[in-house]
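Re: [ENG-882] Designed sequences occasionally contain unexpected residues at chain ends

Forwarding the minimal case from QA. Structure tokens:
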């Protein structure tokens, strides 16, 4: 049962200015009883967060607080915890869950919707920027289907830390303001193995200009609700793509092309930093080209394009690292199908979707050049250079992050022998026995080709190192680090969550004294649940 939330007045939080345009301008579900149902002819349903007994703040992001013009003092206040766990609504908040659908693992799944996300409202900050505040794990909604609307601490720590880590890496992403324990238990069967256990519940407050997904458009087309489709497209263009001008047939196509370009840019970043989303269903694709819905994601340790952390996808590996570019393209194809009724011509949609391939190809080349410290990618030389490198990285277990970072400190002397050249890279190897003479000779050859490539292009070494260190992070949210922080947090010790949050604010800096967080995955983490294997259960 949902209890009525009181309207709270608090100084600081009270200064937030709400302008809830989404619910003001788009059609509401007239039903306000919070039962699970198919919601037709509406973009959202009003719903209140469920109150919890004993909330406790685990962490907050000072940068997101600043975006919202909240002081750190306010973030530490009891009122902040009450508001961002969903126990009290501020004046101006008007909470709702959004209706959307999606293709899950390649199949149309019908209505999904915010099953455990509740939007509190949209704020306008002092700079005039608009942000939607959304609680994840604050109780059931009409879209909860057969689940409980809740989230556990482990998945909430992962979402909170990764959102902020990605932001500081320069990857487009939704943000996270806060992570709050509810003080209540949630039952989860982590690997769907018939072994349900109580776990601590938590709520993350996510922040983004909009949480609209590809699936938000798909649901209306699937139901033949074409006026709603048009309303949401027009709304999205006017609100989130205002530079495109008044909606029209031409503007629809420009908008779709821009979504294709933004999506391509996001995927290039994922491939650059070794991020595997894990569940690239169309309901998890942001219309703004933001990384959204951090579930069973993971970071590549040893470079392996076939790797996915998601055990739910183990059979097909649809969402493996190396497949992410193709999947994004497939998802854009589904979005094209969804907006087809507004365009009614295939050809211009086809042309627009080509923008994905062009942007991805160019972005990928620039990214590869940056990772190698080149000032430009020359396909006639670099296609071969990079292909050989990727073969080498896969042929023995090589930590991707460490390898690229250490490549910057290579001694740029082609006269050196294989082992001398390789010396700075040794930390990247997981299994020293794999480093056969044959491998060393092949890598040595590659390193000499690389040195010559740099020397021929006349790039000064300081310049090369600077480019590489700005492209190749030293610190990422390694899967085992997140798990160690979770283990501690589950014991009531939030220090490592906060330490990682701090560390990951400067992923490209050396940060003396923090090197232990840049080490490769220890052996114990190879097969441990949460480190290399995750499921959708969260
Ligand atoms: P995901 O693949 O995790 O993004 O989730 C797919 C759909 O399931 C979305 O509509 C979610 O809101 C919903 N969902 C996931 N977990 C829960 C939960 N614990 N309670 C209610 N809905 C959920
Ligand atoms: Mg989702």
């Amino acid at each position: 049962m949902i209890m009525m939330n009181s309207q709270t007045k608090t100084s600081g939080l009270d200064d937030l200015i709400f302008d809830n345009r989404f619910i003001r301008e788009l059609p509401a579900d007239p039903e306000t009883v919070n039962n699970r149902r198919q919601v037709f002819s509406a973009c959202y349903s009003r719903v209140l967060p469920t109150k919890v007994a004993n909330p406790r703040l685990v962490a907050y992001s000072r940068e997101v607080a600043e975006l919202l013009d909240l002081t750190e003092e306010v973030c530490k206040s009891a009122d902040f915890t009450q508001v961002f766990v969903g126990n009290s609504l501020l004046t101006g908040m008007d909470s709702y869950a959004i209706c959307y659908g999606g293709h899950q693992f390649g199949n149309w799944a019908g209505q999904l919707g915010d099953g455990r996300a509740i939007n509190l409202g949209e704020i306008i900050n002092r700079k005039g920027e608009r942000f939607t505040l959304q609680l994840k794990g604050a109780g059931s909604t009409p879209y909860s289907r057969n689940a409980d609307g809740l989230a556990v601490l482990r998945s909430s720590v992962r979402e909170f830390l990764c959102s902020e880590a990605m932001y500081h890496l320069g990857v487009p992403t939704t943000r996270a303001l806060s992570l709050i324990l509810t003080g209540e238990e949630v039952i989860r069967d982590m690997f769907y193995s018939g072994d349900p256990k109580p776990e601590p519940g938590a709520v993350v407050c996510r922040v983004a200009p909009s949480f609209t997904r590809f699936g938000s458009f798909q649901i209306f087309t699937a139901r033949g609700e074409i006026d709603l489709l048009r309303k949401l497209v027009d709304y999205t263009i006017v609100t989130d793509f205002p530079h495109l001008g008044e909606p029209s047939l031409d503007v629809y196509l420009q908008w779709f092309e821009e979504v294709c370009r933004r999506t391509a840019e996001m995927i290039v970043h994922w491939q650059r930093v070794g991020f595997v989303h894990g569940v690239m269903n169309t309901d998890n694709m942001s219309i703004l080209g933001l990384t959204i819905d951090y579930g069973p994601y993971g970071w590549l340790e040893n470079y392996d394009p076939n790797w996915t952390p998601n055990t739910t996808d183990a059979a097909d590996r649809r969402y493996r690292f190396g497949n992410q570019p193709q999947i994004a393209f497939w998802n854009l194809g589904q979005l094209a199908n969804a907006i087809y009724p507004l365009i009614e011509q295939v050809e211009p949609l086809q042309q627009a979707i080509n923008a994905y391939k062009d942007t991805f190809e160019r972005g990928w080349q620039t990214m590869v050049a940056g990772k190698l410290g080149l000032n430009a990618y020359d396909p006639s030389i670099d296609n071969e250079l990079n292909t050989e490198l990727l073969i080498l990285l896969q042929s023995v277990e090589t930590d991707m992050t460490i390898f690229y970072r250490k490549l910057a400190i290579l001694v740029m002397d082609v006269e050196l022998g294989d082992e001398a050249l390789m010396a700075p890279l040794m930390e990247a190897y997981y299994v020293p026995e794999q480093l056969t003479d044959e491998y060393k000779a092949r890598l040595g050859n590659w390193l000499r080709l690389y040195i010559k490539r740099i020397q021929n292009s006349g790039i000064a070494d300081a310049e090369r190192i600077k480019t590489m260190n700005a492209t190749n992070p030293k610190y990422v949210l390694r899967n085992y680090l997140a798990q160690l922080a979770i283990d501690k947090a589950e014991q009531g010790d939030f220090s490592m969550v906060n330490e990682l949050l701090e560390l990951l604010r400067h992923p490209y800096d050396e940060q003396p004294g923090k090197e232990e967080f840049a080490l490769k995955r220890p052996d114990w983490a190879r097969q441990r649940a949460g480190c290399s294997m995750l499921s959708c259960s969260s």
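QA comment: On inspection the terminal residues look reasonable. Residues 1-11 have pLDDT under 50 and may be disordered. Proposing we downgrade this to a documentation issue.
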